[in-house]
Amino acid sequence: MSDATRARIIAIANQKGGVGKTTTAINLGAALALEGQRTLILDLDPQGNASTGLGVDARNRDLTTYDLILEDTPLAEIIRKTSVENLWIAPATTDLSSADIEMVANENRVFMLKDSLANRATKDFDIVLIDCPPSLNLLTINAMVAADAVLVPLQSEFFALEGLSQLMLTIREVRQTANPALRIEGVVLTMYDQRNNLSRQVEDDARETLGDLVYATRIPRNVRLSEAPSYSIPVLEYDPASSGSQAYMNLAREMLDRHLATA
Ligand code: ADP
Ligand code: MG
């Protein structure tokens, strides 16, 4: 990393639920960690699926991202090591579902996460991946304000691109106000099915509209990806040879190559 005092922060966002945000956070995180990047997944979804999927028991989440944002608890006190070397998680619980409302009252409301990550709080990491909730609410805005870039998982399904224009509008608004330097890291096609016309159609449309922003790597629909969370491990540990594992390793490498090329 060029700036050793803090990590590169990437918000994984899409206001649609079930498009692969959490799956991407867990498995891209694990893949980056295997590539030697010290990686933190910051769970910003009250459902806490990334936390559960990485083995943080719901009964064992004393300090969470809620405390980070609303109680000024230092990041170092809430992070947990995962089963993967170089991979940590800042867990979330349902507490976070009320955070949105509590944050509205604060005049600093869109900068609360950014402030929590200031003062070299992320200096021990190379990359922080923020798993956003399925909404363009204040939590997601906080993630975009704190982030260097947004990574967008795009489900290879009908209507995928319609939701995207709303997301792009929000990114533009954040740029015009609280975070002018916010970039789009890239758009990754998820749950891709080579044999399905619709998948190919979504891919063609996405590449035509978004050009190089769309990663060459596509994440295939792979049952191993949906099974791994019930074992509390990333697919790279559950089934390293699976197509899902291979795809997330390829995505990690593509991301790192791109970054090195533009650094
Ligand atoms: P989001 O975080 O955007 O709501 P998830 O990552 O939780 O989406 O994915 C929604 C569901 O789809 C989960 O059950 C997950 O296991 C499954 N899933 C995600 N990506 C894939 C994939 N590439 N292949 C098969 N199942 C997937
Ligand atoms: Mg999720």
TrEMBL record:
Domain AAA: 8-184
Pfam families assigned: AAA_31
Signal sequence, renumbered to the chain: none
InterPro entries listed in its UniProt record: AAA_dom, DNA_Partitioning_ATPase, P-loop_NTPase
Ranges that cross the membrane: none
Family matches, as Gene3D superfamilies: P-loop containing nucleotide triphosphate hydrolases (3.40.50.300)
Function recorded in the entry: Involved in chromosome partition. Localize to both poles of the predivisional cell following completion of DNA replication.
Protein name: Chromosome partitioning protein ParA
Organism: Rhodophyticola porphyridii
